[in-house]
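Action item from last week, closing it out:
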Amino acid sequence: MAPPSDQPGPDVDYPGTFEEFDAWFRTEEACLDYVEKLRWPSGFQCPGCAASEAWRTGRGLHQCRRCRRQTSVTAGTLFDHTHKSLRTWFLAMWFVTSQKYGASALGLKRVLGLGSYETAWSWMPKLRKAMVRPGRDRLRGTVEVDETYVGGEEHGVAGRETEKKAIVGIVIEVKDPKGFGRVRMRQLADVSAASLTPFVCQAVEPGSIVRTDGWKGYNSIENHGDVREKYVISGSGNPAHVVLPGVHRLASLLKRWLLGTHQGAVSRKHLDYSLDEYTFRFNRRTSRARGLLFYRLMQQAVSLEPLPYRAIVARPDMPESVPVP
């Protein structure tokens, strides 16, 4: 299945400007109708028995005619059990997607007039998680793979040695002669084959050409149906950014973005959420319609299982934060 186009098309249904957004979603009922349209584009389908016939109850629930199960339009989505209005959520999603370089929890609190910073803080991971399309396609063709390290200077270590920095794996499609396609990123536990091989195999379609440096952690990639092009940096006479330009350019852009968005520090517990957001933005960098980004985020929000607050603050094994260089 091909990934959805990120250019406007005749069947795409989204507001193009904030004025249109404000007109479309002025009421809570209009927001509910939009969520219902995205969640059930072919009409209601009961999550219990898959029947398509239902009626609306006085509380706005769908009651299945076959099994009598009552279903909320927002149940099982990003908006499940929310105490805020859908219009407030829609405004948050418009704000986040319309900001070219991303949005912070503090900025979200200010623009929405939220009374609690904690609310805005808990919403950002949810919105970032929704930026990952369920069942998204793997990268294909020729790709570059490498790791980068997020954190300040660490004295006494060199190369791939680190005790404090977060390790981020990067895969990017190479489009000759000098262009780049889609990207995948994820925080890794270490740079061993046990961490690198599953990351690459989950991100890359079998049969692709995988360009890496000479690190032994990538040796087993060839056993999973990919063709590996290995470059030993020390013996090539070329610096790493020349041999693997895509991943090094992306690593530099990522750190610059993290520095601007997180103002000097990023929580390692929530780094993956930030990587999801940067991936979403990078893969849609050529989109000419900001409203389309809102539409894509809405599509994925109704397909996303709820992310409760306790899951956001979990992972006590991870350090609280690392400085961004």
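Closing note: The beta strands are 54-56, 62-64, 70-71, 142-150, 166-175, 179-188, 209-213, 227-231, 265-266, 322-323.
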